[in-house]
Every structure is written in C-alpha cells, then in structure tokens.
C-alpha cells in the first residue's frame, strides 16, 4: 500500500514502514543510476524469448548464421546489433519485430515511480 508523507511531500510504501523496512533517503550527492541502453533491453527480450522456447545459443546462432559468442554479446547488451541482425534473430525465434519493440518499451517504462512535486501534486518520473 502506498501513501503520501505530507511533511516531505513524497510517496511512502506504508507496508514497508509497518514492517520496519523504511528505505534510506537518497543523499543528494549519491549519483542516480544510469538509464539502461536500448541494446541492453532488446538483448534481455531476445534472451528471455530464446529461453522460453528452450533453445540454446548455438541453435539460434546457427539459424541466424552468426557465432554464438556474438549472439551472447547481443543478449547481454554488450554489442549494438544492426536492424538486419535484429530482424534475423527475431525471424529465427519466430518473434515479430513489433513484439520486440513493444516488449522493449514495456521493460523501459516498467521502472517508473510516482513522486510528489511541490505545488503540482504527484507526477510520474523514471527511477
């Protein structure tokens, strides 16, 4: 359950407060985490789809015509695949490109939180 602390004008997780798990306030000097890159999000989607189909890296890499090392790097978000490579991997997984894009958008927006804005009520912002 979520409530609002009127003194600090912030959103509070009431269940966490009751359980004694109150998060520490973020220090202004603490850097915010870097936003995830698109290649990381797409890599996660492709890896999850491959695993859901119980297929190995080697199996999908052979179907695409690339090395399994390169496919592994794409799935881990370390390589920036071209649109042609993404299309080929999606085809090997029988995953429409539209689904890859839609799942990527959902993952990128899943970590959004509410916060109180002075004088404006509550606004949605990225975590």
UniProtKB/TrEMBL annotation:
CDD domains listed in its UniProt record: HTH_XRE
Domain HTH cro/C1-type, residue spans: 46-100
Residues in coiled coil: none
InterPro entries per record: Cro/C1-type_HTH, Lambda_DNA-bd_dom_sf
Domain of life: Bacteria
Name of the protein described by the UniProt record: Helix-turn-helix transcriptional regulator
Source organism: Rhodococcus chondri
């Amino acid at each position: 359950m979520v409530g609002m602390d009127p003194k600090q004008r912030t959103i509070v997780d009431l269940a966490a407060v009751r359980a004694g798990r109150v998060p520490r306030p973020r220090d202004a000097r603490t850097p915010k985490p870097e936003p995830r890159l698109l290649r990381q999000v797409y890599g996660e989607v492709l890896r999850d789809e491959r695993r859901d189909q119980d297929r190995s890296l080697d199996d999908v890499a052979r179907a695409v015509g690339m090395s399994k090392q390169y496919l592994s790097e794409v799935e881990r978000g370390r390589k920036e695949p071209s649109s042609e490579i993404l299309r080929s991997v999606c085809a090997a997984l029988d995953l429409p490109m539209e689904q890859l894009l839609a799942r990527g958008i959902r993952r990128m927006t899943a970590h959004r939180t509410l916060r109180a804005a002075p004088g404006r009520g509550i606004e949605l912002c990225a975590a």
